[in-house]
Amino acid sequence: MNTMDCKYPYLKCRYYHGNCKYLIIGPLREEIVSVVPSMKLYHNILYDNEIKRIKELSKPKLEKLSIDTNEDISLRKVASFRKQNDQVFETINRRLVQITSKSTTNIVDKYVVTNYGVGGHYLPHTKYIDDDNLINSKGRDAIVIFHMDDVPEGGATVLPEVNARVPSVKGSALVIYNTPMGQFLKFTQYGSCPIVYAVYGDKWTMSVYLKQ
């Protein structure tokens, strides 16, 4: 899968274990999407039964969300969960610890599930909203975006400032790391391309912020 232009020869794919004893036995497929800012794509992170459970939990809770009333930058529905809401989130929380080499106390426990229908999109932006409606991202180490569907046409996660395009591949997780100054600058603004055809159905993602 080509996530970046070929003029970046230092980008690579590899097997990653992070000195975790579980991952040494079964290492992750890690794809380096960008070096500055640091962005990594991991494959086969979510299992089919977990994706099915997350969608089942989310469908009754989905609500339309717009993060800017003056611009048409968002066409999507969202549902939020704490890790305590279901065992599936506890399991994913532990998996994030293995991927990022953090302790469980550093993993933010709010998971945001997003559904994009046909034409659903999320234009690139730098506003990040959480429980306190904070735009400043200080204290956040990274954002993780899980893809829960294969979308052949459209639906890619894009980061225009670094010329990155990450297709929606079922079960994958994109990790976008913060800058040393504690800010998600314009380099890390991201968006979601529209779903092209009705035959491809919709697109589901799940995101979570990680604390520093």
From TrEMBL:
<keyword id="KW-0223">Dioxygenase</keyword>
<keyword id="KW-0560">Oxidoreductase</keyword>
<dbReference type="GO" id="GO:0005783">
    <property type="term" value="C:endoplasmic reticulum"/>
</dbReference>
<dbReference type="InterPro" id="IPR006620">
    <property type="entry name" value="Pro_4_hyd_alph"/>
</dbReference>
<feature type="domain" description="Prolyl 4-hydroxylase alpha subunit">
    <location>
        <begin position="37"/>
        <end position="211"/>
    </location>
</feature>
<dbReference type="GO" id="GO:0004656">
    <property type="term" value="F:procollagen-proline 4-dioxygenase activity"/>
</dbReference>
<keyword id="KW-0847">Vitamin C</keyword>
<keyword id="KW-0479">Metal-binding</keyword>
<keyword id="KW-0408">Iron</keyword>
<dbReference type="GO" id="GO:0005506">
    <property type="term" value="F:iron ion binding"/>
</dbReference>
<dbReference type="InterPro" id="IPR045054">
    <property type="entry name" value="P4HA-like"/>
</dbReference>
<protein>
    <submittedName>
        <fullName>Prolyl 4-hydroxylase subunit alpha-2</fullName>
    </submittedName>
</protein>
<dbReference type="GO" id="GO:0031418">
    <property type="term" value="F:L-ascorbic acid binding"/>
</dbReference>
